[in-house]
Amino acid sequence: MFFVVGRLWAKGRCGVDSIGFILPSCFGAWFFSAMAEWSWARHNVSMYQIHCAWPPELFMFVGCGLFAFAFVVIAHVYHGYKDGILFGRLIEFALSVCVFALPIASSPFFHFHHWFAAWLLGMHINQKYWWSYVVMALCFGVYINGIAGYGRDSMLGCKSAYYNSQQQQCGHLAGDVDNTQFCFFEELPTGHNNVSLAPDAGIVEGNGTAASNETSTVPENNMFMGFGEAVPLDWRNCSATGGH
Q1: Average pLDDT for consecutive 10-residue bins of the chain (244 residues)?
Q2: Which pTM does this prediction carry?
Q3: Which of 131, 135, 156, 166 could be cross-linked to 160 through a Cys-Cys bond (beta carbons 3.0 to 4.6 Å apart)?
């Protein structure tokens, strides 16, 4: 998508093997890993995290980033209009958003991963000017950072984990170890989010309760365990049970 929609194939464009592309890409990949050293930056982009967990420092950092990004958008709109390509590029961007983002954006489980943001925006920052090329390369580096660290993780987070576990008849579905920010599932046999494996465990019935003994583990043979739906975090009042 970066190559096709990003028009890296166009005549006169520098290739991805040029120093002007490699350096911004490396910086983008390094920077997002370096951010993990800042305790105030260890948060994700979701309604719950923004409303309930983001510290003031992160709001200031994101505000500065959005301010800089606004200049990039304005520059692209100006030069796109000047070069007579603005309408076509807006159509391309709108179609990408409608196909890849809108179908899932309304879900309470929606998590705007940085790999997805860099992929979606980066391929549309594709004008012929050097500054546009540098920003695209920066986005490409952020995208590489995301998929190298986590893979193309689902935008639906816990909901996707629940669906995949059900469909593939998984033997257990463990939530976040300390129940602080990720998944919470109803009716787990332990009464909380952590499930372990043990050879002497009793078989768990479909309602999530232990059948033969009152144990909090799952059989060694990885038999399918029933559990309730994934529970979205309530960002409106920051009162999600067991998952905040």
Answers
A1: 75 79 92 87 82 90 93 94 93 92 82 87 89 91 88 78 72 45 50 37 36 40 46 67 42
A2: 0.67
A3: 156
